[in-house]
Amino acid sequence: MDMQSLKQWLIVTDHLMTHDKTSFKDLLKSIAYTPNASFSIMTSKEQEYEARSQAVKRLAFVVLGSELDQYQAQMNDIQERLSENLRVSQSPSIRSAVFLCIRVLLLRLRPPSLIGIWPIMVTELVHVLLQMEQQLCAEGNGIEDLGCARDDAWMQLYLAACKLLETLCTLPAGYLAQFQMCHWAFVNSVSTSKTDLFLPFAGRINKLLRTKFGKLTQEELANLSPSLCGMKMLTSFEELRPFFYALATQNKALPGTHEGAGTDSSFLAGSLSYKNAVQRLEHALCVDFAEHWQL
Question: What residues have CB less than 8 Å from 273, skipping those under 6 apart?
């Protein structure tokens, strides 16, 4: 569906869920992990994982169409379903869908309602970023040893993790108190030196990307946006260079600018108002749900 149709379907879906009290419960049941021998016999593991990832995406779509805190009462159930799917499978497609759902929850629930999901989110995000580091350090394409899953599924997982990190950095600084407590682990918010024992993920991955693909040219810095909002498919780690460069050089930017890191990179420092940040992130989510050729 195109973007306009998608927004209309969000309204229709929300009305359905609001007026039919059992619909949302049924949706959560479809995501619950229930070992089924007949299901396992008739389908492969890949088909089962794909079905689960699509169910999580449906949940994300429903919540995206809701009002702020509309599903606050169901948050414990939502959290349990997401944790359950991560626990029973390390499938990249399921983990990507969970990251997508968490991005929606960050926009549709106030911070106090999200406290329970932070341990899951931070743990998964750290795990995937560590995997990215390992692949960038590896020889060749760096994705030969990831098991039987398709390479593109892993690349989509890396993109999903980066989009979640972009969401966390785009929301106004201080809005998510829990993220402020671990912000230092992900982003270079203060100046670093060669003698520092710890370098945040953004700094480490930026260095690996620069080693593997070379330094960004002045022309690239001027023309490439660090935002991943319009990116639906990741075909090479090289496409992430502007994003991680912007995060790694935040501490060097002048107030209200981000010198040499693209024209709209200051948003990654949480400089937007809450309203503008949410609008930007909602558009990014709509891009993810829309079809490739109808954006």
Answer: 172
Summarised one tens digit per residue, pLDDT across range 1-16 is 677 889 899 999 999 9
Given the structure tokens 């501490």, which residue do they identify? Answer: 251
Answer left, alpha or beta for residue 142, where phi above 0 means left and psi between -120 and 50 means alpha: left
DSSP letter for each residue of 98-119 = HHHHHHHHHHHS-GGGGGGGHH
The CA distance from 279 to 191, in Å, is 31
**pLDDT in the model for residue 48:** 86
Phi, psi of 33 (to 5 degrees): -85, 110
Q: What is the mean predicted confidence (pLDDT) over 135-164?
A: 76
pLDDT of 149 over the 50 cut:
no
CB 208 within 8 A of CB 136: yes
pLDDT per residue as tens digits for the range 31-88: 887 665 445 555 678 888 888 999 999 999 999 999 999 999 999 999 999 999 999 8
Sequence-distant (6+) residues with CB within 8 A of 146 are 135, 154
Evaluate whether 107 touches 281 at the Cβ level (below 8 Å).
yes
Q: What is the signed CA dihedral for 188, 190, 194, 195, rounded to 10 degrees?
A: -120
Tally the domains of the chain. Answer: 1
- CA nearest neighbour of 54 among 93, 83, 85, 89: 93
Structure-token pair, residue 63? 């919540």
- pTM of the predicted model as reported, rounded to 2 decimal places: 0.89
Q: Are 272 and 280 in contact (CB under 8 A)?
A: yes
* Domain of residue 113, residue span: 3-292
The residue among 212, 245, 187 whose CA lies nearest residue 137 is 212
Among candidate residues 56, 67, 64, 138, the one with its CA nearest the CA of residue 92: 56
Question: For residues 186 and 202, is the Cβ–Cβ distance under 8 A?
Answer: yes
Instruction: Determine the Cα–Cα distance for residues 39 and 41; give it in Å rounded to an integer.
Output: 5
How many whole angstroms separate alpha carbon 98 and alpha carbon 155? 15
